């Protein structure tokens, strides 16, 4: 493939800014999903029943499912830039409104609305960022987005812990409202973000694409560079149904299944983690908040080695071996649930370390395997399916621990992880070092290995 202005560009301050703005959405996702878990037990003045308490926790996940599924497609239809800022207004307004709620049903509705906005951000932000990044840095930078999620979760535990100790019974209102502060900051920072030139070209808006590229790349945005982008992004009239047809159906199945099968055990470990840390006297009260923050930091640390390997080792071997290795500590926990604390902690740390590969690939694979016209749609579908896994991991794990015990429950998690390994061995492609248009293109019948845009190799 010939030189591409975007794919072959040097990494600039503009790209760093785009990453920071996009990472803001993942920070808020981690913050908003975690902060409610910190303070939900303190909402006693709402007079909630057990089912209402559960719905407050579940409503954001349901909203994420809807937001990803709906707004992924909307983003591909109307563009990335407008929605990139607008949905943060919803998050800020709903967070402030949460401070004044006196009815559990209204709280459920607000959390659902926040979830929709967060689900939209997965599709909007990842599509826009990937379409601006040079190929040499795309894997590492896209992978770093998940790290912002764990930073946000850790920040939520820190803020919640502080407010509970300072403000007592009113802490939950201020904790939920606190999300408005970063939301407003990112609204201001995102104003003026340029539209994706790839999307503009796919819509035939060539003059606007030329203006955007000139704004970012200056004199490098030559007529030849624009012509190359036009060749890459010529519209083919792809719609929502395209991600469920032919080769793209295979890719949708891969992205959705590996994301789902990773999230179920990961959220289970998030729930199981405080139980492990209880051995150190951190099982009750504010100690559990500190323990949860430490868990987030462990998973954050697990992403670091994966980021070093993503562009040297490759996408396919990283995800295949990660799933294989993730199953080992889960199996040990399942076969020896009464093992010494040191063994349990080693297993926990090993799982967090090995989970880094699939975690960073959640944002890489969906954006590299689908063309611009359906890229946000595909991310939205993957996000929606993954939220099913989050719900399963969060709400069925306690049932398993109660009815069949920790050992069998962890063995089930190990089996789910092994199923993810099988999916990756069968379906995972290699997209390392490819131009975005090349990795997302469907191979033509009879193409050689070198000509295939996303070969299952490695």
From TrEMBL:
Keyword Transmembrane listed: yes
Membrane association type: Multi-pass membrane protein
Signal peptide: none
Domain of life from the UniProt record: Bacteria
TM segment ranges: 20-43, 55-75, 82-102, 108-129, 141-159, 171-193, 254-277, 289-307, 319-336, 342-365, 377-397, 409-428
PROSITE patterns reported in the protein's UniProt record: MFS, SUGAR_TRANSPORT_2
SUPFAM superfamilies per record: MFS general substrate transporter
Pfam families: Sugar_tr
Segments for region (Disordered): 435-458
Subcellular location: Cell membrane
Keyword Cytoplasm part of the UniProt annotation: no
Positions of the Major facilitator superfamily (MFS) profile domain: 18-432
Keywords: Membrane, Transmembrane, Transmembrane helix, Transport
InterPro entries hit by this protein: MFS_dom, MFS_sugar_transport-like, MFS_trans_sf, Myo-inositol_Transporter, Sugar_transporter_CS
PANTHER family the record matches: PROTON MYO-INOSITOL COTRANSPORTER
Protein family according to the UniProt entry: Belongs to the major facilitator superfamily. Sugar transporter (TC 2.A.1.1) family.
Name the UniProt record assigns to this protein: MFS transporter
Organism: Streptomyces peucetius
